[in-house]
Amino acid sequence: MPFFLSSMAAGVSIALGGYAYLSVESRYLGAFLFSFGLYAVCQYGLPLFTGRIAYLGRPGGYGPGKLLMMLAANFIGAAIVGLLYQPVAGGGDVLSVAQEKMAQLPWQSFLRGLFCGAIVFIGVDIFRRYPDPMGRYLGVLLGVPAFVLARFEHCVADAFYFAAAWQQGLPFDIRALLMLLMVIVGNTVGALAMNTIVPQPAPAKQ
To answer: What span, in angstroms and rounded, lies between the C-alpha atoms of 119 and 139?
Structure first.
């Protein structure tokens, strides 16, 4: 249960970043504030699917069953925040955000998820590898605004957006589930591919 709850906390953290993004008029400020979510995940070591899937099959990585449980808990945490969402005057329109996402073709959702998965892996891997206090956070603080401004897709953040939109009266549409599925696949492929091609740390000298 602690693993499930900490995974829910990761979803809540990402959703709070999304909430902050919707609460300001400027996309640029919102993209920076969104980085709070991944910053909190890295700082507290919370299990976030998009930050852990790249290490599938690697030493210290989680197996498929644990990753699926993590993803479910991430979605639950994000959806809870979404269902409690209240619009902020002057902020973004979550209904428009959700409708725009559902209008994507499946291959577009996959590609946007793929690029987001690559960026999230880079940010998390830099945090994991480098002890320098400044350098380890730059991957997160630069990477998150990069994927937000590029309109790449993060599956846990999207779970928050859809839950918030449903809470605000958007009718349920099966396209939302298809979009989420394609983003999950894209996030997974992007993270795994990037972890395959980036240079690996040199083994410690004996």
So the answer is: 9
Residue 187 lies in a domain: yes
User: Residue 203 domain-assigned?
Assistant: no
Q: How many distinct structural domains can be found in the chain?
A: 1
Q: pTM of the full predicted structure?
A: 0.94
CA–CA separation, 51 vs 106, rounded Å?
A: 23
Report whether 41 contacts 127 (CB < 8 A): no
Range of the domain at 138: 2-197
DSSP for residue 171: P
pLDDT in tens, 133-182: 777 888 899 999 999 999 999 999 999 999 999 999 999 999 999 999 99
Please work out, in degrees rounded to the nearest 5, the angle formed at the alpha carbon of residue 61 by the alpha carbons of 176 and 113.
25
CATH number for the domain including 126?
A: 1.20.1080.10
- List, in sequence order, the alpha helices (H) in 57-132: 64-83, 94-102, 106-129
